[in-house]
Structure formats: C-alpha cells, structure tokens
Amino acid sequence: MHKYVPQIKMDYSHFKTDVSKRRRSAATRELTKIAYAAPHNVISLAEGMPNEETFPFVEMRVKLNDGSSFVLEGEELGAALQYIPSQGYPLLLQAMREFQRKAHSPPLWESRDIVVVSGGQDGLSKALEAIIGPGDPVLVQDPFYPGAGVVIAPHLVELIPVVQDDFGIDPIGLRETLRSRRYSGKKMPKIMYINATGANPTGTVLSLERRKEIYRIACEYNFLILDDDPYHFMYFTEEAPKSFLSLDTEGRVIRLDSFSKVLSSGLRLGFITAAAPLVASIELHMQSSHLHAPTLSQVIAYKLLKIWGYEKMMEHFRRIRLFYKQRRDLIAGLAKKHLHGLAEFSLPSAGFFLWIKVWGIKDTWKMVMQRGVTHGVLMAPGAAFMADPSQPCNAIRASFAKASYEEMDLALERLAILIREELVLGDSITDSEI
Amino acid sequence: MEKITRRYMASCKNMDYSRFTTKSSQRRKPNLIREMTKARINRPDSVFLAGGLPNTETFPFANITVTYKDGQRYSLAGQNLDTALQYGASQGYPPLLQKMREFQIKWHNPPRNDWDLALTTGSQDACCKAFDLLLEEGDPVMVQRPTYAGIIGALNPLGVEVVRIDDDADGIIPEGIETILENRRRDGLVLPKVLYVNPTGANPTGTVLSEDRRKRIYELAQRYDFLILEDDAYFFLHFLEKPPTSFFSLDTDGRVIRFDSFSKIISAGLRVGVITAPQLLLQKIVLHIENSTLHTSSLSQVLLYKLFESWKQEQFEEHFQYIQQFYKKKRDIMLAAVEKHFTGLAEWNVPNGGMFVWIKILGVEDVFDLVMKKLIPNGVFALPGNAFNFDISVSDQHLRLCYSYATPDEIDKGLSIIAKLIREETNKKEKSDCV
Ligand SMILES: Cc1ncc(COP(=O)(O)O)c(C=O)c1O
Ligand SMILES: Cc1ncc(COP(=O)(O)O)c(C=O)c1O
C-alpha cells in the first residue's frame, strides 16, 4: 500500500535572488554532515575539525530555576564545543521538529524543514536576503520592526506599507494596495514581512479571520509570508493565536521563531520553519557565513527541551505570559495615570511594548531623542518604526518587559513632563516660525 | 616613548577607504533601538524603556558552572549569568573586547593605533561580512589558490572575478601577484582592491608564508593599493621556532583586515572569532553584525572572558605550546604514514602549520571519482582537491588529509586503504593505456 503524502507544488526559484541561486554547498560542510551521520567505523581524514581534546573545558553543569540540572561532559561536552552541520545540532533539530509539529500541526509537514539560526534577526536577514533583490518591492506592516528595515536598506528595495489598526494588518487595505499595483502594472511583491502575534511595535495580535484572509490574498497574488513571530507564546488574549504556518496549505509561509524572549537572548538561537527548498537556501548561506549557530547554545537548549518535554515547556510559556501580562497591566495603569489628557494608547494584546500616541505633537523624534535623553527617559520614537521615517510620527514605543514598577512610574512621569514642555515649546516654535 | 612617537607618526598618514567599500554597504543603517542602548551607557540613571530586552527573571537558568582542565572552576550566577543570557553590544562583550585589544597589541605590536576589533560568530562570519563590505559584483579579488572551501562559498554568489594567486611550499608567490597586476595594468583591466590569504597553516595546503614574502607582499599592497584580508585561523597552530610576523604587525598604512578564530584553540562550538581592522572599516562591519546576528553569543563570550581571566600569563603560553605540540605530533604521525604508504604514489610538502597534509596523487588525473566512488564506499573519508577550486568540475590531483582527529591506527589503516585504491586505479589505467 502506498501512502499518499501531499507535496508542496510551488516553484521557489521564482522567489530567489540571483545571489541566492548562485550559492553552492561547501564541500567541507557537506562532509561535516556526512561525518555526523556516518557510523563510527569510518575513518575520517576529511573534515577539518579541531580535536576537542585540546579544548580547555572538562565539564559544564547547568542548574535550572526549577531545581533540575544537567551536566555536559565527555562526548557530549565535546560535541557542544565542536563544529556541527550548518542546519543545526541534529538532536535539537529533531526535538524542534517534534515541537513545531505539536505546536502548529502544519499542513504538508513532510515537505518542510527547520534550520537553527543565530537568533531571529539572523533568520530574518538570511530569509530576506534569499528573496529580495535590488528594486524588489516588499510588503511590510506599517509601523514595523526596524530590524527588518535595516536588512532591507542596503538593497534599494521598495517598501509597500500596509496599514494596521488595533487588530493588525487590515486585509481590505492590503487587497486594495495589491489590486491598484497590479492595475498600474507595477512590479508585484514576492514577500510580506509581518509579526502576527504581538506586532513590534504596536502589540497587536492578528485575528484568525484576518490571518485566513491575508493567507488567501497571498495565494491570490503569489507572495510568501515571512512571519517573524518571537512573541507567539506571549499573548495576553483568551485564546492562543493560530500561526500562519498552521494555515499554510501551499508552502508559502516562512516561520521565524526565537528563543530570545523565552529562554535567553544571549544564547542567540532562532529557528526557521519553511518549505525544504527555502530552508536549504538559508542553510547554504550559513555555510558561507557563520557556519552554524553556537553549538553550546544549541546543546543547552536541547538538554532543556529533553528534560522538560513539550508539556513543561508550555507551562513555562504560561508562566511567562502571566509575568508579562502583569507588567502590561502595570504600565497601562501608570500610563493612564500620568498621560491622562496627553496621549492615547490601546492595551497591547501580546509582546513587550506599549504604543503611545501623543496628542498635539506632530512628531516625537526630537522630543524623545534629544530632550528625552537629557531628561533621563529613554523610549523609542515612533518614526523609527515607520516605512517612511522621514514623515512625522506622534507615537512612542515603551517597553514594559524589564523596568521595575518604580522605574516605569518615574519614566511615565518624566514623559508627561516632557510632553507638557514640548507642547509649550512647540507653540513657541510655531509662533516664532510664523 | 619611541613607540608613542612611531605610532603618532604612522597615524598621520590616512587612507581613503571610500574607494574600497561597496555602494550597498554605504546604504547600511543602524538599528535605532540598538543605538539607544548606547545612549543609556552615557546616562546610567535614566530609565530605559527603549529597547526590547526581555526580563532575565523569566529565563529558566539558575547557574552555569564550568570546570576547566587545570581544575579551576567558575560559576556563572547573578549578574554575570544575566549578562551571559541577555542581549549585548553588537561589537562584543566589552570586557572581552578590552582583553582582545590588549592581546592584539601584545601579539602583534601593530604600528598604528587607529584600528579596533569586534567579536564575530566565528571568523568566517567576519570574512563574509568583509567581502560584503568591499566587493561589488564584477570586482576582481585576489585569492590564494587552492582556497578554503568556506571562502569559495562566500565569494561565488557575489559574482566577483576571482583572480587566483598560486602558492608553493612557502605560501603564495609575490612574483605571481606582481605579474598578474602588471599584466592587468598593461591590458587596461581594473586592479583588484583586495587580496585574501591564509598566511599561517593555509587551508588546505598547510603552508606558512615565509617572512620575506610577507614583507614583499605588503610592499606590493602599498604599490598597487590593495587591502590584505589576513584570515589567520591557524596563527597559533604553527610548528615553527617563533611565531610568524602577521600582516597586521607590518601594517603601517592601515590596509590589513585581520581575522582570528578561537575555533582551533579554545572551541569551535562557541562560535567566536575576532576581526581587527582600521576603525573606519570596522564600524561598517559592526553595523552589518547589528543587522544580522545582532551579536555573538553572550554565553560564549562571557565563558571565554572568564577563562582568560582565570589564566595567568604563563598559562596562555603553555596552552599555545601544548596545542602546537599536540598538532605537531599528529602531523609527524601523519607524515610518517604518508611516507610509508605513498612513497612513489604521491608528492607532498611538509606542512608547517594547521591541520592538513596536501598531497598530490601521481598517475590519477582527477581524484574526485576516486574519493566518491572508491574511498568513501571503503569507509575512508578524505577531501578531494576539487573542493578547493572555484570550479569544482576542474580536474584536481590533490587530496587533503586532516590529522587533527584520527588516531595513529586510523591514519595507518586509512592511508593503506587509500594507497591500495590508488594502485588499483593506476593499474587499471596502465592496462587500458596498454590496450
Ligand atoms: C519582531 C522581532 N523580530 C526579531 C527580533 C530579534 O530577536 P532575536 O534575534 O534575538 O531572536 C526581535 C527582537 O526584539 C523582534 O522584536
Ligand atoms: C582558513 C579558515 N578560515 C576560517 C575558518 C573558519 O573558522 P571559524 O570557526 O572561526 O569560523 C576556517 C575553519 O576551518 C579556516 O580553515
């Protein structure tokens, strides 16, 4: 009996840049892969691995907050200090494949793969660089994470901003934008950059209906969706969001996960889950850049996943949700208190950020970047997140992830003073300009 | 005093780097949010709500304890653990940066003082970023041949013109560079702006560039105005009486970008390398780091720093000597086996650094099929020379044999199998030649 396994039918060569198409595998890296998979009796004089015997560490012991612990020593420590295949530490890859399958039940799972990257930003830059070439248009939610903007900047790309409201990108606006583009014969975008959950900087969560509709539009207009979703498990809504990956019946979603917000940002670990040919392109890019994400970080993450298993991991995420939800409520309360009559904001549904829109001030840039710095309150000016940063923007992004209650209180108090001063200053400036 | 004057004098001559950098690299922008992290350092009492730093309280780690080979033990906890688990500066963990600057001065005594360094996710990441910074599509670039496969992988997609510089037992040949450049000049071709070289223990040949050639090549760089990318991953892995003179230590003009790697001497899995370059170029590399990996693993950097802190000065020297002796012994075992099994079948030079012997198989025009169809099915892995050519389909007679890992028995057994398979191959050929 032949089991029918549905396959992805897309042709990805349409999406890849010339640079990406020219990438070839490095023989040395391919051998690392073979050597890793080879039985113990082969003699390898091939790969240029240093001998771990010469490394100055003999043991690493990791203790977790829940009292459990693990030790890296002998062969396992050796592996943690050694080169590995670019795609990732095989045991971690396996664990992550299982994890993704449980967490998202992605359709067409057999045609997908995972690559471990050195943080979400690394994944973002490698995914975008595989797809966007000079002059290509890219759809971005507006405002959007500047980390995506800086990747695109050197490539002379055209940004097509898609407006958002309190529930994220509006599919109606998106469809309209695409329709008029097509109508006027402009080059059509190959990819859309989006944060589906806890959009940076606005904190919105895209509703399921909208996700479905946006996915339909992607199919209709043939573009890929790069879902940079580091806050996927950090939602404050009743229901867990359903990822684009879990809706992806055609293989057009590139999903980006990051351990930065949930395990550790310093380990520099992220994951790309996508159609196997796209994952292969990214792996090739890694072969010629940093080779692979740090092995030690990968082994630590693997041990943790193994000790915890899926359920405990989910429990950890639940705790994190509670932790940040409390903080969100704190900052919202403080903002209400201090910014009353000065600004408005929506309650963020996920993530780390409060997006404050200041009344009566056209642009917050100078206020934040100059006077804010001297007043001892550092927040991010809204224009930094806009597709067109040269336009004035009255918003400010404040992070509630790390500061203490007292610090938040002080920061918002200082912000209120800053705004009041700015209003006076602004008046006098306009006066003098007239 | 004299040193200070010399430094000052040297710094007076300034290169114009704009000629060397690509248009796309000039369009690179800083990520404002990360820039604000710097503003915070200037005003420590300010309240920082600008960045997206997660709260380390939510991270599941309580402590990480590391035991070193010398028996010392270090436990990362509290503030240090937070640093190891948290985002850090793109250029690198400041205490480790400072330590590395001191090391570079001690090891290389560079003539200028307008250089700086950054920590990267392995040295290859830095090489690849340097290519991105310096090479436009179509630009010529001089590359040591044969070439480390990772560099081929990084250069090929850029669509550059690779100008191969041949080497012999003493490394790349300065006269080769001169002839090529003179010919290009005569023919009205653009001169390359960049030379890529492994001066110590070249991958794959194991050659160490002779002292005299280093000086000659630096003079050529001055004469023809090119930059030298000194990818020196095996700098501490040489088998000479005294350490070779780096290009960095000859760099009176500010035209050397140096790449160091901890992969071969401390750990490859930590993924930490160092790029040392003129400040103006380095800033652009740091921007690229900020746009891609953000920074090198904080855990790796903190672990390295703590290790260095625990070591007394002699311990560094001891560690390097130990590494050199370790690999020298391995090399000698490999060389003895090569002599035993390959005499009459192959030619080779004695490698003075690195982890490889590069042997030329006589009587086999292209080793590729030999490796893929004979060696591997017989359980012996070796790299065919083709892997180090930009065009993998070009025939190559070389094998790269790595001696870092295999035991003496494995080496002996492996080489005897290879020799047997070569004999079969050449016998077959002789027979077919007779027909
Ligand atoms: C939306 C988004 N993407 C990517 C990143 C980068 O995270 P990392 O590279 O640490 O995974 C961040 C971090 O702030 C983010 O907010
Ligand atoms: C010449 C050369 N450069 C760079 C590297 C990569 O080193 P790293 O691990 O520091 O990226 C290697 C490793 O094999 C090498 O041989």
TrEMBL record, chain A:
Q: Which GO terms describe its molecular function?
A: kynurenine-oxoglutarate transaminase activity; pyridoxal phosphate binding
Say which domain of life the source belongs to: Eukaryota
What are the record keywords, sorted? Aminotransferase, Pyridoxal phosphate, Transferase
Q: Which CDD domains match?
A: AAT_like
SUPFAM superfamilies the record matches: PLP-dependent transferases
Identify one Pfam family in the record: Aminotran_1_2
Annotated Aminotransferase class I/classII large domain ranges read 42-415
Provide the GO biological process annotations.
alpha-amino acid metabolic process
Gene that codes for this? LOC107275177
InterPro entries with a match to the protein in the record = Aminotransferase_I/II_large, Class-I_PLP-dep_aminotransf, PyrdxlP-dep_Trfase, PyrdxlP-dep_Trfase_major
Does the keyword Transferase belong to this entry? yes
Q: What is this protein called?
A: Kynurenine/alpha-aminoadipate aminotransferase, mitochondrial isoform X1
Required cofactor names: pyridoxal 5'-phosphate
UniProtKB/TrEMBL annotation, chain B:
Q: Cite the record's note on assembly.
A: Homodimer.
By which gene is this protein encoded?
Answer: LOC107273165
* Cofactors: pyridoxal 5'-phosphate
Instruction: Family membership, please give it.
Output: Belongs to the class-I pyridoxal-phosphate-dependent aminotransferase family.
Any GO BP annotation: alpha-amino acid metabolic process
Domain Aminotransferase class I/classII large spans what residues?
83-416
GO MF annotation list: kynurenine-oxoglutarate transaminase activity; pyridoxal phosphate binding
CDD domains, per database record: AAT_like
Keyword Translocase in annotation? no
Q: Which organism is it from?
A: Cephus cinctus (Wheat stem sawfly)
In terms of Gene3D superfamilies, this protein maps to: Type I PLP-dependent aspartate aminotransferase-like (Major domain)
Keywords, comma-separated and alphabetical: Aminotransferase, Pyridoxal phosphate, Transferase
* Stated name of the protein: Kynurenine/alpha-aminoadipate aminotransferase, mitochondrial
